[in-house]
Design goal:
mainly alpha; 62% helix; extended
Length: 92
C-alpha cells in the first residue's frame, strides 16, 4: 500500500492519494467480509512480479505484428465539441 500511496501522491497530491488508498483498503475489507476469507499478503513486489511475467506472453507472435500495424497509421478521431465552438458558431 505504501508504494501505491507514493505513486498516487506524485500524481494527485497527498490528500487525494490518502483517500484513494483508504478506499482501496475499504473495498478489500468489504470483499474479505463478504466472502469470509482471511487477508493474504501478496508481497510488496507483487505488481512488479506479475508485470514481468505477463508482458512476454501478451506481446508475442501475430498479436504483436497486428498491434504494430494498427498503431502505425492511426486514424484521427473527431474531437467532441458539443457547443461547436471551434468553428465560431453559436448555439442553434
Amino acid at each position: 500500500m505504501r508504494d501505491k500511496f507514493h505513486r498516487l501522491k506524485a500524481r494527485m497530491g497527498m490528500k487525494k492519494a490518502a483517500m484513494a488508498v483508504a478506499h482501496k483498503i475499504l473495498v478489500a475489507v468489504f470483499h474479505m467480509l463478504q466472502r469470509g476469507v482471511a487477508f493474504a499478503d501478496l508481497g510488496g513486489d507483487y505488481l512488479d512480479r506479475i508485470a514481468d511475467t505477463a508482458r512476454p506472453s501478451a506481446w508475442s507472435g501475430a498479436s504483436t505484428r497486428s498491434a504494430i500495424m494498427s498503431c502505425s497509421n492511426p486514424k484521427p478521431q473527431p474531437s467532441h465539441d458539443p457547443l461547436n465552438t471551434r468553428h465560431g458558431a453559436a448555439h442553434p
